[in-house]
Specification:
There is one protein chain. The termini are far apart. The chain has helices at residues 2-14, 21-28, 35-54, 62-71, 84-93, 100-122, 129-139, 143-149, 157-174, 177-193, 198-210, 214-218, 222-244, 247-256, 261-278, 280-290, 297-302, 306-329, 346-351, 359-390, 400-412, 426-435, 473-483, and strands spanning 421-424, 441-442, 458-459, 464-469, 490-500, 503-515, 522-523. Strand 5 (490-500) and strand 6 form a beta hairpin. Helix content is 59%, strand content 7%. By secondary structure, it is of the alpha/beta class. The strands form two sheets. A five-stranded mixed sheet has the order 2-1-4-6-5, with helices on both faces. The chain has a two-stranded antiparallel ribbon with strand order 3-7. The chain contains 23 helices and seven strands. It is globular, with a radius of gyration of 26 Å. The protein has two domains: 2-378, no CATH class; 397-523. The longest helix is centred in the last third of the chain and has 32 residues, at 359-390.
Amino acid sequence: MDLAFSEMAARSENSPARWRRPFLIWMDGIEAGWAIPLLLIGFIAVWLAFLVIAYLGGDLHPDVLETWTLGRSIEWGYAKHPPLMGWVARAWTSVFPLNNWSFQLMALTNSAIALWAVDLITRRFARGDKRIVVLLLLMLVPIYQFHAQRFNANAVLLATWPIATYCFLRSFETREVGWAVAAGAAAALAMLGKYFSVFLIVSFLFAAICHPQRRAYFGSLAPWVSAVAGLVALVPHLHWLATTGAKPFAYALARHTGKAFTSSLVEALLFILGVALVLALPTATWVLIAGNRLKRFSLDFRAMNAGLLLLFLVGVGTIAFPAITSIGLGTDMPPIWALQGLFLFPIPIVCATSYPIERFYSVNLAVLVIGIAVVAVVVVAPVHALYRNINPLHEGRNFYQLSAMEVTRQWHRQSDEALPAVGGDDGLAFATAFYSPDHPVYEERLVLPNTERMSFQTTFERGWAALCFANDTYCIASMERTAARAYRYVRSEFVLESTLLGQPGATQRFTALIVPPSIEGTITPSPVTGVAEDLSASSR
């Protein structure tokens, strides 16, 4: 097989088929500076079309809606996460509208920035086809399309990790103050995305210590300047943590710790296995490209460029340290948390090869990636949309916009004022805040479906609404307890049906509470914790 591929590659180099010529012209533009931007623009356009078609009957993921909700107020931190994802959403919506395609475009733009940053690193070590091969191999994994569309604290790292890695690489290579400051600031930015980025920073330290040039690096000002720059950049967030009780840490500890040794060991093994499975397709593709030249791998690895060795060590650290932490501290460690760092493996593997990659293989890889994207848009997206219209997404996303509009309509039957606040099921509340034309403020304290806690005082002066799935008895009971302190409230149940291009689909029942504006002001909760009696007529 290797011989057959080699013969085809030789014939293609001498006399390429006509259909290959546009690809050859495109790849000639890599070093001219226009081929990579064209690839990234095409990537955004094709996968935006996929998301728009595939989710015609479904709205944004609740993580995306939560991200926008957080970004409505610019803070140095939020209850569950560091602030970067909220900042990005706030900046985006200062230019783009509040709708599904806008946020899908934001997610894919984040992916394109990530891939651009990967190319910044790659061009330090390779020219021409190898640059495009690295990006195409990464486009074979479902990270920059499907993982990215769920724009949250994980997805925001897709761009920040390669940017931080590039700055660290330049700082290690040059030991210049400017790059050292950039490395520290970029690492801080990654930390403001998600605290999991501490593993990237520890991996930088690990790689620098293990690298043959460690003496020169640690003997310079660069690492110390980076440390100071990173801490300075984090000072406002650290101050916020100190003055607010470090809520994100408390949330993380409550949500992700407390596993037994056996469970954490399994978690660590699944973390490593999950990473390997995600890389399986690009790995198999690379094996076909390399063919019998894989025999040179050990020689090429030993002769690896110093910068590539640094990247490889960073990549090893980003997999090893989370697994070790999972075992040592008994924590969750889903493989999805490692996806933003997988670029650290294709770059050294492709760029360290001592042989060129023939255009035959580069074009074939491009055709494979483009073919997958076209099939996804033309076949998979419509099928997904049709299927999900009948079998709704488990988060209830088929009904987000519909339920938001219905709750808003019910509110305006009680008041001429804009709906000021919304609570209930988190996903439904986030959706109401986003899709309702009133854009009410999400208020967690109004309804706490998973706890008996209640704030000492709940304000009803301007009124509020809450929404739960009709089968969520905990959510309904909680919102009724809160509403019982109000002057009056209206409870209703309603059924919504999803549609796709006029075709009816699945149905879902909801329970809503409307607390109209009241002159009663603030009412102190009583110690009673039972389910409140309906104080007014229900609307059906």
